[in-house]
Amino acid sequence: MAKKENDDVSKTFHSLVESADRKFARVRDLPLYGRSPQNHYFQKVFKAYMRLWKYQQENRSKLVDSGLNRWEIGEIASRIGQLYYNQYTRSNEARFLVEAYVFYEAILERKYFDAGGSGKAKVDVGVRFKELRFYARFLLVALILSKMDMVRLLAERFKALVDDCKTNFRETNFKEWKLVVQEIFRFMEVDSALTNVRPLRYCALFDTHAASRPYLAHFHARKIVKFRDALLTSYHKNEVKFAELTLDTYRMMQCLEWEPSESFYQKRPVESVYKKHPVELSENSTLIDHSGASGLININLAADLTDPSLPSNPRKAVLYRPSVTYLLAVMATICEELPPESIALIYLSASGKAARSNAFQVESSGESKKSSKDRVVSGAYSEHKIHVLESHCNGKRESSDYHDNCLWLGPRGNGGSNALYPGDIIPFTRRPLFLIIDSDNSHAFKVLHGAERGEPAALLLSPLRPAFKNPSAVDTTHNGSQFTFFLTAPLQAFCQMVGLISDSDMDSYNDAEEILSLAFSEWEVILCTSKGLDLVWAQVLSDPFLRRLILRFIFCRSVLSVFCPPEDDEQYLPVCLPHLPSSVSARSEVVQSAIIQLANHLKVADCFQFDDKEAR
Length: 616
Prior knowledge:
Elements: H1 2-28, H2 39-58, H3 60-65, H4 70-91, H5 94-110, H6 115-118, H7 125-144, H8 148-168, H9 175-191, H10 204-207, H11 213-217, E1 226-235, E2 241-242, E3 245-246, H12 247-255, E4 280-281, E5 287-288, E6 315-320, H13 324-337, E7 342-350, H14 383-393, H15 401-404, E8 407-408, E9 419-420, H16 422-425, E10 433-438, E11 458-461, H17 476-479, H18 482-488, H19 490-498, H20 506-529, H21 535-538, H22 544-563, H23 569-572, E12 575-577, H24 589-601, H25 612-615
Parallel strand pairs: 1-6, 1-7, 7-10, 10-11
Antiparallel strand pairs: 2-3, 4-5, 8-9, 11-12
Helix pairs in contact: 1-2, 1-4, 2-4, 4-5, 4-7, 5-7, 7-8, 8-9, 12-18, 18-19, 18-22, 20-24
């Protein structure tokens, strides 16, 4: 009788698993972009997994008697965490990301995939693959949440697990997983400079300036648009990435979100939130949960890690190495579904057609370098690009300019299928766009200004080449784009440019942050009170994310204007179109004074070419 009852429970359990998995597959395959209603799909699959979890909790002993393994429970929990993460990628609501983190941490704490907890001496290779996927997914969530202590812990365990799998399953190829391990350690190495400094996300504590707040509160433009959607993508050969998140898109994605709560900024050791809900071992060594009705977590735990007073994050479509046709399809969907009086941000980071080689790569051939006056990374610069640059500077526009120059979004050997031309973007200018082009061919996109089909676009175009005091000491292929770095972490980018270690003296570094913060506050007031501010910029000035990008662009442009040789300004300076007011130009007194103060404070003034009058 008992055996039949156990068999019936097991049959019902597996039926619930199959039903939940089918619903999960439907949600997983839904597009990650667009505003079409998908919440009812999410609710259905979530209810299916909650029903499944509750059933296994209520019938745990019978299921164990029928042969239920702990890894099967872990697999259900992992699916729920994955479900939450998928919902975050579609909605960009921080609470879903935090819920995913909480679920994944529960799996880690309770060792659901651990061989010792399963009562077996050795887990089969299929279970090991599930555990590897769990670690990779947890790493991605922890990375996006900037939980770097947890990332380091997970990375070490992940590496140990891959090594163990290679030892115990020699007949199985784990080469791809070894590459994933290399990816996360490479990513951590590059991103380690940011672990002890301010978050990339918008944090009211640091990014809201008391002195300029009244001016922003009373600022009114003829037209105001809301920042609702963003499309982010990058493609560079050998760029640093983890999973499908490149370093450049990671930084920009972080920059366009609110810091969830101050607890995420505080540096604290890795500790489980489940200390509020302890887990005990029973006599038969199985775990007894005290974490709410679900048996896995108390869903309300996530409320401790989010701030309900914060506005919602803008929706972001983060595309990993998309085809040009797919990119344009996503762009079309975003523009089509963009609500009235709204603006979309398009961020593209890729090398361009005109260069014979990626100008972002540092010379490693041992050839003689330029004099120290030319403190820049060298790279090929073709006559064709010079011609295009000159025609743009002279205000000339040829019809071929729209389709002769491009960004490469894939290997160049595939011909035009991976080429994105300035003319490809023109149809989408019927809606308000905030375009950030980070490329060694970015200036080719100047032709968009004045060619819009309905709404003037805001353009932030990167320098054609990065600049460093010691080019040989900076591998830009492995450190991401300098322009993106300036837009997302301006002081760190400044320190990297002049060869300083940003956290070597935290007191001095924090004082430098304060200098920059005061400068941004002053520039905000100037922009708010400027009568010559173009409507393209005025209409977005009320948005904290876009305003911060504009301020950081002003800083980047001014820094590079006194760092790079004046005869090469066109190559090493970023461009904004329409032009910002002259009161915040690269050489304006109010902007330059802040750069001088910062350089003097960090004792790197000798790296810059300040006028004697400016430096006094």
